[in-house]
Amino acid sequence: MKITLRIQLSLMMFLQFCVWGAWYGQMSKYMTNQLAASGDQVGRAYAVFSIATIAAPFFIGMLADRFFSAQRVLGVLNLLGAATLFWLIQVKDPGMFIWVMLLYSLTFAPTIALTSSIAMQNMANPEKNFPSVRVFGTIAWIFITNLVGLMNVGDTAGIFQISMISAAAIGVFSFFLPDTPPTAKGPATFSQIIGKDAFVLFKDRSFAIFFLSSIAICIPLSFYYTWANPSLTDSYIAAFPDQDPTTFKIENMMSLGQVAEVVFMLLLPFAFKRYGVKNILIFGLLAWILRFIFFGVGDAGSSAWMLYTAILLHGICYDFFFVTGMIYTDQKAGPRIKSQAQGLITLATYGVGIFIGPILAGWAKDYYTTAGTTNWLGLWMAPAAIAGVVLVLFLLLFRDRKPAEAGA
What we know:
mainly alpha, 1% strand, 76% helix, disordered C terminus, 15 helices
């Protein structure tokens, strides 16, 4: 891959994940502290992101596959997102906040699949080249969450202001990306608009099992994104009650998960060759179970190492399941439906799974909270149990017939 192309695609990933990382892990604290939102309201705010993810990617993927160059669609969506974030910053009512968040999510959700599709369509060997480009999205998450932590704006509207500026930047930059023209021709039918072209992938049993597992494991993922920050904050306040909470720098601490993500993402090409798709996915599921147990049992005092380990396990959890899933999906899809195929896996992960997950996470938070104090051990055991069930079902049902070809 030419160095100029690599730089362009890497910068695209960096800017896109700056948009996302600035607010996603911090929104629960912002809503709780600034909008006085309940656990259920926080859960619904995260869930509307998934509603948009379910509704938008197939339609946008069809546009990118059939009518418009993908990089132009990406640019327009990010510019619309920047404008919507400006409106979101002004909202102070948690109920209204949820509706505006839905509108914003409709502009952002499709960009997850589009950036992956743009990158892979411009690569001769995605299995080899994609991880080293996608890793810049993780680097961006590290950078932006550390910036949020250093600025002490993790529970303020500053998280959305940073996201707005980043969205405007990639919105303009997208028009200078390599042209990624439509890969299909002819008039579109209603079935194509809803993404029926990509449903052919379900004829492959391995892909169907992977799709269902992706939905299920995103329920525990939602618990992490929604409550890890408040959980860590409470743990440190309990261990150091006389210390100013702003000195704990929880956002900076959580960014270590993305540091680990960088390491394991760079190791993915070697893991594909040595272990194959199935074993990589199993490693990821085992890591999910262990991390939630550590979050529940660990504390900021004598067992702080458990909390740090739980954060660092994010590298295996995310890369060995979700990034692997993107590559696996690209392998299964033909060139005609690559964008819709990425939209399909986005539907499973950031759509259905993370629609159910935040709602359950919100209910769990309210259930395990009494008189303002949350029983974090009880809360974290719920996603650990769910991940355990997914692992058992995956071991019994998933049969990848060509594991050796994953690294070819």
